[in-house]
């Protein structure tokens, strides 16, 4: 590798490729877009739409889906309170790594407790944690019931289901709130537009 | 977001941005470069050199360092056998996600047991796990002793230290082996060159 031969004067122990260099390469800024809300509120749909729109703009993003990670990184965790907390902590830690790698990391988890979300916020550098609250009425989510889970929860076959017999604590100071307008849910592209606009305004879609 | 208005005919539930699209964006192929070897064998140095060289070629990589992750994702794990295994499993799962995101993920861990490394290999698609064995003599590593750990292990102040009172199981079929030539350790740029050459030959430095 002749190109490597020129590098012999570099101090090799100083690992000079850091977040700033990666962000320049990608022409974007790493951050965490944390989508929280009830089951059926549209988190995965939004995550997917945001990822698609970012890609069409040449930006690199990656979706961390709570359900998917339970088949891999978090497969040794159940649904006891302390296991839910650990589940969210691990996703937060991984999201932090992706943001540090320069990606726009889109995490999509119910993450019902404020303290767990706040713990994830505190892991990443200031302002690079963007909390998106899917503020959809429970009735709407329950009508959709895409996974049939509300039915099971109402029948008592799932215990501790968020919104039914376990609380959802809405964010107090989220960066973005997605809600119905005149009783109509926004289309995925509209919801994604709200997130993309925010990222654009805050400068995440360019390197600094 | 007027540009989003054009996307309303897309099937939003089909999350079309996948590994292939990300790889095209990055013009590279996601994979895991897993560096294994004794403490002091030069894993971090190699990881850093490879990352630097990849960056100079416009390729996006990210280093997962075993020690660093013990301050974050793995901070609730100690050094009992089952905790070591879980430590490596989590790093493997995260490396898998990074490779899926399209990055060249460089994992740097002692990872002394063959079964733990093989478990990580089995997580990622065939051939995209590239095991790099830092085959340095124990005497060399112990002389370097960059963290002073061998001294503590010899004095009995650390128990179960790899190479002293806990075994290191060398890979049987690693993709790359780094070793001394005529009793001299290769320079970091030479070691990195060996890895970069491999990635280049196998096509990882371009999208397919």
UniProtKB/TrEMBL annotation, chains A, B:
APS kinase domain boundaries: 29-178
Keyword Secreted among record annotations: no
Pfam families (UniProt xref): APS_kinase
GO molecular function, one term: ATP binding
Cellular component, GO annotation: cytoplasm
Pathways per UniProt: Sulfur metabolism; hydrogen sulfide biosynthesis; sulfite from sulfate: step 2/3
Protein role: Catalyzes the synthesis of activated sulfate.
HAMAP family for this protein: Adenylyl_sulf_kinase
Name the record gives this protein: Adenylyl-sulfate kinase
């Amino acid at each position: 590798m002749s190109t490597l031969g020129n590098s012999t004067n570099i101090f090799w122990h100083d690992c000079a490729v850091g977040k700033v260099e990666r962000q320049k390469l990608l022409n974007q800024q790493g951050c965490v877009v944390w989508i929280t809300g009830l089951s059926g509120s549209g988190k995965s749909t939004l995550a997917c739409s945001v990822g698609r729109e970012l890609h069409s703009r040449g930006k690199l993003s990656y979706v961390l889906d709570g359900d998917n990670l339970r088949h891999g990184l978090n497969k040794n965790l159940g649904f006891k309170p302390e296991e839910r907390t650990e589940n969210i902590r691990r996703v937060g830690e991984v999201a932090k790594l992706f943001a540090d790698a320069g990606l726009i990391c889109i995490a999509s988890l119910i993450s019902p407790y404020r303290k767990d979300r706040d713990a994830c916020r505190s892991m990443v550098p200031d302002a690079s944690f963007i909390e998106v609250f899917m503020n959809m009425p429970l009735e709407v989510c329950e009508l959709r019931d895409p996974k049939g889970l509300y039915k099971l929860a109402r029948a008592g076959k799932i215990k501790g289901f968020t919104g039914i017999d376990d609380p959802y604590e809405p964010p107090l100071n989220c960066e973005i709130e997605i809600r119905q307008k005149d009783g109509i849910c926004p289309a995925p592209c509209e919801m994604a537009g709200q997130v993309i606009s925010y990222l654009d305004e805050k400068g995440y879609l360019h390197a600094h």
